Request: fold
Amino acid sequence: MREPNKTPLIVVEDSDEDFEVLQLFMEDMAVANPIYRFTTGDKALDFLYRGQYKSAETATWPSMILLDLNLPGTDGREVLERLKQDEQFREIPIVIFTTNSDPRDIKFCYRKGANGYLIKPVRTEQFEKAVQAFVDYWLNTNTPPEWVELTGIE
Reply:
């Protein structure tokens, strides 16, 4: 088993309540990743395109992006589409985490390159199970591209 992933996790979530619950569960699950939260798609894109990631040589790439769909301004669909069309960011796994269960949106997200789609449960215990499943697979089990590059595995 490899070391826990400690690369940044980007969470794009406008609901303070949903983010606080997510953060509490992740703390309880001993998630080691630093979490960068953005409340709008515009802020997340600004961070990626104009922030520390403008210089790929010195950047610590995020392990993944947990993305809400219904955001003010540039919504999650637009963020997903833009990042998956950009060669610089295409390999970063993006998991949609939203209350939206519309089959058209689910299909759209997968067509645009989403790596997963989780519907936020309303009940706290089910929300916790969804977060646990996300953490177990995406942060503890999955092997992201940057880990492969860092270890020299081909």
